[in-house]
Design brief:
The chain is of the alpha/beta class. It has 15 helices and twelve strands. The protein has a five-stranded mixed beta sheet. It has a five-stranded parallel beta sheet with strand order 9-8-10-11-12, sandwiched between helices.
């Protein structure tokens, strides 16, 4: 689809293309997609230098002003983009400069590139990427089949990027940036209450972003001035509540949150509406991720078994079936621990273990070998944190995970 409206698939394709572009910025043989070149307003006829200059200028446009607080998120986003991609520093060097852990940086990197993509998209089109279609109808105008269509599109989204999780702080700020286009039309202010920096949930960022925008889009037209606030709070039961509230409300009667309900169904989320004479709010609850576990095993049944073992225990399983996908998956989901088999279809598991232990992005992560091969000594010699012999019992698996993520004494 072309034109100034674009669509969410266009934006996601651009964001993914931009991520590859910044990673390969100084590769003289690299050629970005046409969409990336168009939104950067650059031609490859100028050679690699033209691309490097365009990306550097785009990042420089995000440079925070002198009045930005030292802890402002925009400072961290700009610092990551500048040090990691323009200056080419390692993750460890960037983390040290920004005063955060390397694990925190791995979580923040994709969101920093996403923020740059949002900036370039808005600059080019001067509008927000529109919400995914079809939008759910109101109660008075049902459209048969829209729920099934939403489920299908969300399923395709999950399949295209298995295991991707959402950083609530980052998503709330993104939604606020986009939602202000909607809120400004009704003279409504849009603010974000800064949450804990490591609140993550198991839902694709594109889906959660649309959920937040749908809530803002339903609140803003029912207000005349006032303020919409986005906030997230952990709950005692291991879940997190994400609230999108607006006040004062001039037009009561929020419609059924159909799209939001469908989008939250797969990640075991819920939504409730709160309405008083002066205020209305959407309260969304999702399971809070304590630890992401990346499983590298070609046996789908093992992944299902691990998910049953870890249900309710604070671990979220991300599964890939091929060793060659392990590094990209680790960079995407920022796991707390990696569990890998050594009998893989595409490469030797011992070679993969050694490679992961040498790679700067994964070398500090706990790694547990789970295999039928009785080679505990080899696993430990190659850098494994632990070894489990298949078949594995639930208590045995949980103890190994808890030992791997437990801080050293």
């Amino acid at each position: 689809m072309s034109g100034h409206q674009g669509d969410i698939e266009d934006f996601d394709a651009f964001a993914e293309g931009l991520r590859e572009t910044v990673v390969r910025l100084y590769d003289p043989a690299y050629r970005p997609s046409v969409l990336v070149l168009r939104l950067l307003s650059v031609s490859m006829q100028g050679g690699p230098q033209a691309l490097q200059t365009a990306v550097t200028q785009a990042i420089d446009a995000l440079r925070p002003g002198p009045d930005a607080p030292p802890t402002a998120r925009i400072r961290r986003i700009y610092g990551i983009l500048l040090h990691r991609y323009v200056q080419g520093l390692t993750q460890e060097e960037v983390a040290e400069r920004l005063g955060i852990t390397a694990r925190h940086l791995r979580r923040e990197q994709p969101e920093a590139v996403h923020a740059l993509a949002l900036h370039l998209w808005d600059q080019h089109f001067a509008v927000t990427p529109p919400r995914a279609e079809p939008s759910p109808p109101g109660e008075d105008a049902p459209a048969p089949g829209w729920r099934a269509q939403v489920r299908e599109e969300l399923s395709l989204l999950r399949e295209s990027a298995p295991g991707v999780v959402s950083d609530l702080n980052a998503l709330m700020h993104e939604a606020a940036t986009l939602g202000r286009v909607l809120a400004d039309k009704h003279a409504v202010a849009l603010t974000v209450v800064e949450a804990h920096p490591l609140l993550s949930v198991a839902i694709h960022p594109a889906a959660l972003r649309q959920v937040l925008l749908a809530a803002i889009a339903q609140l803003a037209p029912r207000m005349q001035g006032g303020q919409i606030t986005l906030a997230a709070h952990p709950l005692p039961d291991g879940r997190v509540r994400l609230s999108i509230g607006g006040a004062p409300i001039a037009l009561p009667g929020l419609p059924s949150p159909g799209f939001i309900e469908e989008a939250l169904d797969a990640p075991d989320g819920t939504v409730t509406l709160e309405e008083t004479p002066k205020r209305a709010a959407f309260h969304i609850e999702l399971p809070l991720l304590e630890h992401v576990v990346l499983v590298v095993d070609d046996n789908q049944d093992m992944a299902h078994l691990y998910r049953r073992y870890t249900a309710g225990a604070g671990f979220y399983i991300v599964h890939v079936t091929e060793g060659r996908r392990a590094l990209a998956a680790a960079e995407s989901c920022a796991p707390s621990v990696i569990v890998l088999d050594v009998m893989l279809p595409d490469m030797d598991g011992w070679t993969l273990l050694a490679s992961l232990r040498q790679n700067p992005a994964t070398r500090d992560l706990p790694m547990i070998v789970c295999s039928v091969v009785p080679e505990e000594g080899l696993a430990l010699a190659l850098g494994a944190t632990g070894y489990l012999r298949k078949p594995i019992q639930r208590e045995q698996f949980l103890q190994a995970l808890q030992a791997a993520v437990r801080p050293p004494a």
